[in-house]
Specification:
Layout: H1 2-19, E1 31-38, H2 43-60, E2 70-77, H3 82-93, E3 100-101, H4 106-119, E4 123-125, E5 141-143, H5 148-161, E6 166-172, H6 175-189, E7 194-201, H7 209-220, E8 226-230, H8 233-245, E9 254-257, H9 260-268, H10 273-277, E10 283-287, H11 293-306, H12 314-335, E11 342-344, E12 362-364, H13 367-375, E13 378-381, E14 384-387, E15 398-405, E16 408-416, E17 420-422, E18 468-473, E19 483-484, E20 491-492, H14 494-504, E21 512-517, H15 526-534, E22 540-541, H16 549-552, E23 556-557, E24 562-564, E25 566-571, E26 573-574, H17 588-609, H18 620-633, H19 646-675, E27 679-680, H20 686-691, E28 696-699, H21 704-710, E29 718-721, H22 724-733, E30 742-746, H23 747-754, E31 760-763, E32 770-772, E33 775-776, H24 781-796, H25 798-807, H26 814-822, H27 830-866, H28 872-884, H29 891-929
Parallel strand pairs: 1-2, 1-3, 3-4, 4-5, 6-7, 6-8, 8-9, 9-10, 18-21, 18-22, 28-29, 28-30
Antiparallel strand pairs: 10-15, 11-12, 13-14, 15-16, 16-17, 19-20, 23-33, 24-32, 25-30, 25-31, 26-27
Family: Belongs to the glutamate-gated ion channel (TC 1.A.10.1) family.
InterPro entries: ANF_lig-bd_rcpt, GABAb_receptor_plant_PBP1, Glu/Gly-bd, Ionotropic_Glu_rcpt, Iontro_rcpt_C, Iontropic_Glu_rcpt_pln, Peripla_BP_I
Function: Glutamate-gated receptor that probably acts as non-selective cation channel.
Length: about 950
């Protein structure tokens, strides 16, 4: 009985091992079948076939991987045909393959990925680089090489590094070519560059040299000279051959090829000299694989296998690693208990009975688990770390940048998605922080087509006989800037001369014609004119075009050739011609504070000096006069009273210092008022305009209207003015008489307006900073070259000479006004003379009143002594004697003299009294004697 059971178990084990299947068991199968589908006789296919076969040998010889299970890869040739590739994939679906290595072509991959989704069989392509294959639409498609998304990003960064803006894409017009160029377009747009022309070529084998020539002739008529070639090797070499024949591989051109060319250069080097001659100076990308011991060992082994007849390229390395990826994933699959089993697809039962035998295809039950293990694989292969990102792309994408020179090529740098362009291998930069700054992007020097070491400009003016349509505004005011010559489409003026001079400095001809814009009755809208560039009506706009934000969003401007910005123009009046100008150095508040402090300091000094200083003592009236006199005389440092107290002296010293500063400030300000022309306007600038509700003028067609509305000024306050004459009339009338309070316009117009209008001035600061430039379509290289030419005009003085030719005016110069203001006139001092005269008159009036009072007293005294017979001449003589009488001392001294006289009289009387009393005893004694 035991023998029977042993026999049954042996049969079961033998059956599983012979079929390579494990129905419901958990043991590893003896054989695992994997398919391989690609083009054997292609550049990539030849090396991939050898690499896959060597990888299978290495996997099966590795005892630690797929323990006891043999990996078998069944190869099938697709012959670069999408149809044959699909047939081959369907044949694999009829067998027990658990995965397929391939396809090589992106076109085939698009077709058979739908089959893979249905039957849950992973496809691992080492050569299909179409970026769209990474989409969620193809979950069972895995790319084991780099996507063209990164290759096109590298190309875009090269274009940006050299400062080019437009490229031409020549591509094979299938899924591989179209989707690759679409990725390039997106990468360029992210860097403000663009593809100016896309030239697709049929992918069929029937493409002739004439077809390619027709395409390249059109390319040669374009202005861009940066050409990106994304094709297959056969078509690519045909394009280079025709381009060399047409002279498009010479000086001025730049050719950037995708990695199809390096796959040929690496595997077929050295190429025949005739092929190398037609590719001189081409830049080529190659998938970067870091140097390692395993890679060097495999390269040495490769040379022995091929005898040196077939080189090792990056696609062969990726094909080799793909086999190891399948082996690692299967090993994990078996370790997790996965079994290789298939089930019928119920969706295919409805087509039973047809000759296609679709019912033979079955679903791989372990497909989801195997796909999961494939995506989670992580090992070091010949191409470096082999691991997938969440988006199913390989980690650390990088490319070598190759320059074809002479009989070979040399590497000029690297590109990696981690650090951009560099001259160091990407793996040496992964340990550092990523630095994508422009200063950190570097490449070695390149030898360009035509054996030129100077970086090509990247574009030329297209030689297609087409003239540029340059829009020019028809101005009705300020025609010095732009004006149309009557009866022609020619223009003249400052802006036209600058444009013509700049174009003459360019190293190439720019055929153009001026196209008038406007109705000739009012200045046109410059914003609308600029918008016509985006619609293709104009190839550029020349004129007094202000560079403002909303316009720069639509077009590119050249370097500004004239400074501009909005300013406020308003009427003014002169302030230094009045007779009371001497009061203007200080405000009314300042005058009041100065007066109060003069009195305050005088009172403080009197308080501190009153007890110790006789000069600050006396009757109240006298002391009041002393206080006033002392405080006011310090203004001129002419005080006579001396201070004796320490506190008084301290206060006086500080006060005299204050008076010194006040005097100096007053003198300086008064000097400025009398010698420098002082202008006054009630409007101080834009802010004061916003606070009022008065009308504001602006020039028709100017961006000033939109600007004023954006800062909150109602449109009802804005008045459109069309000429300098209207400016002057509206400003002279003012808001009260139907005019405007001020005009807001660009500085160049205002300067020209003020050159012959002396009644107005710019008030406040310039409140926008901009300039005038010429407008061209976005990323136009002509805008860049003209900017350089404008800088040259500025540096050599030609720009100033053009300005002086059209805009220099001397009708209303400020120099005469300044010279006139330096001369002082009587009216400037009339107030001072008036005050002084009034003071003199009042003093004389008081004096004569005092004299007349004394005269009346003297006349009464004479009348009493002489009687009524006094003659008129005697009264006149008395009056004259009073006027001529000399007062020896001041009134204070006379009062003191009177006091002293009264005191002396009293003393004399006392002395007489004492003498009389002394004499009386003597008399009596004498009488007694007698």
């Amino acid at each position: 009985m035991n023998v029977v059971w042993i026999f049954v178990l042996c049969l079961l084990c033998f059956g599983v091992g012979s079929d390579g299947l494990s129905g419901n068991g958990t043991s590893r199968p003896a054989v695992v079948n994997v398919g391989g589908i690609f083009t054997f006789d292609s550049t990539i296919g030849r090396v991939a076939k050898i690499a896959i076969q060597e990888a299978v040998k290495d996997v099966n010889s590795n005892s630690s991987l797929l323990r006891g299970t043999k990996l078998v890869v069944k190869l099938q040739n697709s012959n670069c045909s999408g149809f044959l590739g699909m047939i081959g994939a369907l044949k694999f679906m009829e067998t027990d393959v658990v995965a397929v290595i391939g396809p090589q072509s992106s076109v085939v991959a698009h077709t058979i990925s739908l089959v893979a989704n249905e039957l849950q069989v992973p496809f691992l392509s080492f050569a299909a680089t179409d970026p769209t294959l990474s989409s969620l639409q193809f979950p069972y498609f895995l790319r084991t090489t780099q996507s063209d998304l990164y290759q096109m990003t590298a190309t875009a960064e090269i274009v940006e590094y050299y400062g080019w803006k437009e490229v031409i894409a020549i591509f094979v017009d299938d899924d591989y070519g179209r989707n690759g160029v679409s990725a390039l377009d997106d990468a360029l747009a992210a860097r403000r560059c663009r593809i100016s022309y896309k030239a697709g070529i049929s992918p069929g084998a029937a493409v002739t040299r004439g077809d390619v020539m027709d395409v390249l002739v059109k390319v040669a008529l374009m202005e861009s000279r940066i050409i990106v070639l994304h094709a297959y090797p056969t078509l690519g070499f045909m394009v280079f051959s025709v381009a060399h024949y047409l002279g498009m591989m010479g000086d001025g051109y730049v050719w950037i090829s995708t990695d199809w060319l390096t796959s040929v250069l690496d595997s077929s080097s050295p190429l025949p000299q005739d092929k190398m001659d037609i590719m001189q100076g081409v830049l080529v990308l190659r998938q970067h694989t870091p140097e390692s011991e395993n890679k060097r060992a495999f390269s040495s082994r490769w040379n022995k296998l091929t005898g040196g007849s077939l080189g090792l390229n990056s696609y062969a390395l990726h094909a080799y690693d793909t086999v190891w990826l399948v082996a690692h994933a299967l090993d994990s699959f078996f370790n997790q208990g996965g079994t290789i089993s298939f089930s019928n697809d119920t969706k295919l039962q409805s087509v039973e009975g047809s000759n296609l035998h679709l019912e033979a295809m079955s679903i791989f039950d372990g497909g989801p688990l195997l796909l999961k293990n494939l995506l989670q694989s992580d090992f070091i292969g010949l191409t470096g770390p082999f691991k997938f990102n969440p988006d199913k792309s390989l980690v650390l994408p990088a490319y070598d940048i190759i320059n074809v020179i002479g009989t070979g090529f040399r590497r000029v740098g690297y590109w990696s998605n981690y650090s951009g362009l560099s001259v160091s291998p990407p793996e040496s930069l992964y340990s550092r922080s990523p630095n994508r700054s422009s200063t950190n992007q570097k490449l070695y020097s390149v030898v360009w087509p035509g054996n030129n070491v100077q970086k090509p400009r990247g574009w030329v003016f297209p030689n297609n006989g087409k003239q540029l349509r340059i829009g020019v505004p028809i101005r009705v005011s300020y025609r010095e800037f732009v004006s149309q010559i009557p009866g022609t489409n020619n223009f003249k003026g400052f802006c036209i001369d600058v444009f013509t001079a700049a174009v003459n400095l360019l190293p190439y001809a720019v055929p153009h014609q001026f196209v008038p814009f406007g109705n000739g009755h009012e200045n046109p809208s410059y914003t609308e004119m600029v918008k016509l560039i985006t619609t293709g009506n104009f190839d550029g706009v020349v004129g007094d075009i202000a560079i403002v934000t909303n316009r720069t969003r639509a077009v590119d401007f050249t370097q500004p050739y004239a400074a501009s910005g909005l300013v406020v123009v308003a009427p003014f009046k002169k302030l230094n011609s009045g007779g009371w100008a001497f009061l203007r150095p200080f405000s009314g508040q300042m005058w009041g504070v100065i007066t109060i402090f003069f009195l305050f300091v005088g009172i403080v000094v009197w308080i501190l000096e009153h007890r110790t200083n006789d000069e600050f003592r006396g009757p109240p009236k006298q002391q009041l006069i002393t206080i006033l006199w002392f405080s006011l005389s310090t203004l001129f440092f002419a005080h006579r009273e001396n201070t004796v107290s320490t506190l008084g002296r301290m206060v006086l010293i500080i006060w005299l210092f204050v008076v010194l500063i006040i005097n100096s400030s007053y003198t300086a300000s008064l000097t400025s008022i009398f010698t420098v022309q002082q202008l006054y306007s009630p409007i101080k600038g834009l802010e004061s305009l916003k606070e009022t509700d008065e009308p504001i003028g602006f020039q028709v067609g100017s961006f000033a209207e939109r600007y004023l509305e954006e800062i909150g000024i109602p449109k009802s306050r804005l008045v459109a003015l069309g000429s300098p004459e209207q400016y002057a009339t509206a400003l002279q009338r003012g808001p009260g008489k139907g005019g405007v309070a001020a005009v807001v316009d660009e500085r160049p117009y205002v300067e020209l307006f003020l050159s012959n209008q002396c009644k107005f001035r710019i008030v406040g600061q310039e409140f926008t900073k901009s300039g005038w430039g010429f407008a061209f379509p976005r990323d136009s290289p002509l805008a860049v070259d003209l900017s350089t030419a404008i800088l040259t005009l500025s540096e050599n003085g030609d720009l100033q000479r053009i300005h002086d030719k059209w805009l220099s005016r001397s009708a209303c110069s400020l120099e005469n006004a300044e010279l006139e203001s330096d001369r002082l006139h009587l009216r400037s001092f009339s107030g001072l003379f008036l005050i002084c005269g009034i003071a003199c008159f009042i003093a004389l009036l008081i004096y004569f009143l005092q004299i007349m009072h004394k005269y009346r007293q003297a006349a009464k005294a004479e009348a009493i002594s002489d009687g009524p017979t006094g003659s008129r001449s005697k009264r006149l003589q008395t009056l004259l004697s009073l006027i001529d009488e000399k007062a020896d001392k001041s009134s204070r001294d006379s009062k003191r003299r009177k006091v002293d006289r009264s005191v002396s009289d009293e003393n004399m009387e006392n002395d007489l009294g004492r003498d009389s009393r002394r004499r009386e005893p003597q008399v009596s004694s004498q009488n007694e004697v007698h």
